[in-house]
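Reviewer has doubts. Consider these tokens.
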Amino acid sequence: MLELIKPLKGNLVFYFLIFLSLLSWYVIFERLIYLLRFKPLPDSWKEVKTLLSVKNYEGGYELLKDEGGISQLFLKVIEAFLKGQGKEKVEEVANLYAKRELEKLEENLNLLYAVGSLAPLVGLLGTVFGLIKVFSSFSLSGGEEAFKLLSRGISESLTSTGLGLLVAVPSITFYYLLDNLISKRAKKLEEALNELLNLLN
């Protein structure tokens, strides 16, 4: 593999593709770690539901106060309810904080898709420039040396396209895998919030 990309060293396209690769793997690992740590439900969700089901709203509120993370979203909703705000206002609070959590989950995901879309085009651009250079040199050479130059040049140019695809494939693959993980966690959060709103009504 290293032998294949060795001829591209010193090429601006090569360095840009390496940058895109590093960027995509940073986003992949950062999002994976965040999503695996993310809990769509409070730790004490079962206990909170039990308290809310018997109209002990203050008890549920107090239980969530000592927790961090997603529990703060549920806390804000119960807080709005305890302040005597109407049903629509409480739902508005729930939707607002849920939207913020979703934005956090999806952070940098579009960047991953952009890298996956851009990398093959950058690789193709490197191939086109490489072929232009090869044929320009070919026209100035002759005989057997010209054909050797041509075959070597085409090989190096196509390597640029291959490297672009090598960057794009994991980027697009992980984009869809991460998107699926986000959808599952968002659905779980949405279901829990709907359950909370029903318990408060």
Observations:
- The chain has a mean pLDDT of 84.
- The two ends are 62 Å apart (CA to CA).
- DSSP finds eight helices and no strands in the chain.
- Residues 55 and 200 are 8 Å apart (CA to CA).
